[in-house]
Amino acid sequence: MLSIHETFMQRAVSLAKKGTRLAYPNPCVGAVIVCDGKIIGEGYTSAYGGPHAEVNAINSVQDESLLGKSTLYVTLEPCAHYGKTPPCANLIEAKNIPKIYIGCIDTFAAVSGKGIEILLKAGREVHVGVLEDECIDLHKRFFTYHNKKRPYIVLKWAETQDGFIDKEREVSSVDEAKPTWISNELSKQKVHQIRATEHAIMVGTNTALKDNPTLTTRLFGGVSPIRILIDKNLRVPNEYHLYNGEIKTIVFTEQETNSNLVQFKKIDFSKNILSQIMEVLYQEKIQSVLVEGGKQLLNSFIEQNLWDEAFVFVGNDKFEKGVEAPVLEVSPSKTFVLGTNSVRHYIKEI
Ligand SMILES: NC(=O)C1=CN([C@@H]2O[C@H](COP(=O)(O)OP(=O)(O)OC[C@H]3O[C@@H](n4cnc5c(N)ncnc54)[C@H](OP(=O)(O)O)[C@@H]3O)[C@@H](O)[C@H]2O)C=CC1
Ligand SMILES: Nc1c(N[C@@H]2O[C@H](COP(=O)(O)O)[C@@H](O)[C@H]2O)[nH]c(=O)[nH]c1=O
Ligand SMILES: [Zn+2]
Q1: Is-contact 136 104, C-beta < 8 A?
Q2: Which residues of the chain carry a pLDDT beneath 50?
Q3: Residue 290's beta-bridge partner residues?
Q4: How far is the CA of 38 from the centre of ligand 1 (A)?
Q5: Closest CA relative to residue 288, chosen from 188, 145, 174
Q6: Atom of ligand 2 nearest to the CA of 210
Q7: How far is CA 158 from the centre of its chain?
Q8: CA 338, CA 210: separation in Å to the nearest integer?
């Protein structure tokens, strides 16, 4: 059973999850203010450039005089630096909030420990590590981005009972280009939920050509991720969905070219392309990327041990031959069932 402090932190975690995608590149933090055992204020990080969670929670309190005898629960160490907004640690001090429970320390160098230091110097009671694992998980994209200087990488594919991600097939025109569905409707919806959580989504050239994917969140709602295509020789024609201009799309290529429908980024394909792509995504402040295939692209991430999490959806069919699914040589952290499909979920320690 959760302790009373964990219960309030759990509420802060749930609040944070409401805003995740819009706060990028800020971490989406949740905050709850409690007075005499009752929640009197709540908040989560606004869309980028707007107020942080602590500010929104403080502003939501109707009777400000209660703050002087309240407790603040916040999923991440309050910030101590001037970004788009002033430091939250200073605001907490100014509002005389005496007790602060923090989910996890901010490992981002501009904050790390400094927010806590401000509060301790101001004589506040500070507790760190309430529901720490949940809070670290909540902020894993932000931590990976700053500490590893690359986005958090999630691999995902759907495979048959006998380990294929597609049948053997040729596609010669855009009219023939569509995915071979292995997943059931529940799994498709789950995929769109995952897409709505990640900042960007990437596919290889053959996947774009054979599937003509849209890569949106249409079955779940939420913001669709920035689309990323690798296309060395610009083999994917403009009539494909990735060039419809509806969603920001970045194309990594070797060619010198321009378009107002997508953003081209020139890289050197004779060198390690994934490290160049990661560098560009870091510069673009993209905090996470979902790699949806195909086989070659997924395998290149796996070979370079360049991934943090993976979802493998397993359908009901057997294809007997076709495009072989990638293989992860580690055990899944958990497996869950979605109707007739199952999902293996792999999470690496950060
Ligand atoms: N069931 C599922 O979940 C999924 C199934 N699929 C299926 O997978 C198949 C496509 O997979 P696959 O054929 O492996 O193709 P990919 O989609 O992985 O694309 C491979 C091509 O993309 C470029 N590319 C990708 N990665 C790299 C890299 N690391 N370095 C350099 N170039 C790279 C190359 O293009 P170039 O040769 O022009 O340089 C390469 O030939 C399709 O049949 C599709 O339907 C796809 C996604 C998910
Ligand atoms: N076939 C297959 C998947 N295929 C992936 O989904 C992409 C299509 O996306 P969209 O156009 O948005 O529906 C496709 O290009 C490939 O990356 N995904 C799955 O979860 N299960 C499946 O069985
Ligand atoms: Zn802040």
Answers
A1: yes
A2: none
A3: 154, 201
A4: 53
A5: 145
A6: 15
A7: 20
A8: 26
State which residues have CB under 5 angstroms from ligand 3, the bound ion.
52, 79, 88
Residues 6+ positions from 43 with CB-CB distance below 8 Å: 15, 30, 31, 51, 53, 54, 55, 56, 57, 58, 59, 60
In the prediction, which pLDDT does 110 show?
Answer: 65
- Contact yes or no for 190/184 (Cβ under 8 A): no
Contact in structure between 82 and 91 (CB atoms under 8 Å)? no
DSSP-derived pairing of the beta strands 125-128 and 152-159 = unpaired
Q: Which atom of ligand 2 is nearest to the CA of 315?
A: 23
Residue 231, SS3 per DSSP: coil
Cα angle, residue 48 at apex, residues 191 and 9 outer, rounded to 5°: 70
- What ligand has the least distance to the C-alpha of 190? 2
So which residues are the catalytic ones?
Answer: 54
β-pairing verdict for 249-253 and 341-347 = unpaired
**Ligand 2, atom 18: closest residue by C-alpha:** 158
User: Among 160, 178, 275, 297, which is best to mutate for testing ligand 1, by the most ligand atoms less than 8 A from CB?
Assistant: 297
For the beta carbon of residue 276, count every other beta carbon within 10 angstroms: 16
Tokens of 217: 């969140």
pLDDT score, position 350: 59
The ipTM of this complex is: 0.97
What pLDDT, on a 0 to 100 scale, did the predictor assign at position 169? Answer: 97
Q: What is the pLDDT of residue 37?
A: 97
Q: Is 211 in the pocket of ligand 2 (CB under 6 A)?
A: yes
Predicted local distance difference test score (pLDDT) of residue 83: 77
Ramachandran angles phi, psi of 231, nearest 5° = -150, 85
| Cis status of the peptide bond prior to 225, with omega within 30 of 0 | no
Residue 343's pLDDT is 98
Atom of ligand 1 lying closest to residue 293 CA: 47
Q: What single-letter amino acid sits at 35?
A: C
The strand pair at 30-35 and 71-76 is best described as antiparallel
